[in-house]
Please model this.
Amino acid sequence: MDWKPMVTMLAVVTVFAVMNTLTKMAFNEGMHTTVLIVLRQLTATLFLAPIAYFKERKTRPKMTTEIFVYLFLSALLGASLTQWLFFFGLRYTTATFASAFINMTPMFTFLLALPFKIEKLDVATGSGAAKLTGTAVGLAGAILMALYQGPALTGTPTTDHHATAGAHGGGAWRWAIGSAALLGGSASWSLWFILQSKIGTKYPALYSSTAWMFLLSTAQMAAVGAATEAMTLQVWLPGTALKVVTVLFVGVVGSGLGFLAMSWCVERRGPVFTTAFMPLIQMIAAGINVTVLHEQLHLGSVVGSALVVVGLYLVLWGKSNEASSKPKLPPPSHSKLALDEETEHGDSRIMQSV
Model:
């Protein structure tokens, strides 16, 4: 068994959990969402571009209009839209709650893979029923997390005033908006995973495609920032040590190495395997956020998260069982290989005699 993809994804989800906590802390210090995304993508571009240039200088395929469109969409879905929606939702909720919505990514990936014929669904079989049931259970968990908070399970007061107001008055509206943004971010990320499986075959240059994605995302979000943010140094320059560390960590480690590792895993094991590790982000983030950010854990988030995880692994069990039940073609026998070889030699002798 090849353990490299598994170890790689375990490292990725740990990095993402730390990244979510740092990002929330930077937002609490007043950092703007669009500014963080632009600086993150720019840092990732500067980090990856030299590596991509020298490592794939002789093997990189020629850039075509079709490939550029694919890369532009990859940047839009995987880097720009996903991060903007996720960070928007993170502002209005909590880091633990936002991480819980990442668990929806495998189920969205499965649903979106059906029309692209990457996945098949036969409800008459146990595997198909498990995948369908798991998707329904996971969606129910996400709806529960969005609509019901319930009593706090931890007595430690939270430092996030938006999250504290989540169940009171206008705070409930903010919580609902944040939940909708997180749901949209999960769907956008799922589309990116499916698109990435196509890009891997059309433009088999992992470092270059990732660098292009972040360069294009930098341009996309810079245009959004120019239209929505004040063009002052106070807004665009990280003014505290925490903001500088956050930009460097999310840019180099979170984006540069993280997306590179995920793209590699998609090429090796496919999009469903890669997204299967996303629930671990919430578990790691919950431990960090309760101790570092002093966030409260609510009953609705715990029950909804449990449903999402159950649904996720029903989908994965169905997929694994489906793969193991496929008939394997027997290898060609030695006699057939010898006959084919003899036939080939006979044909060549006939051609030579002619």
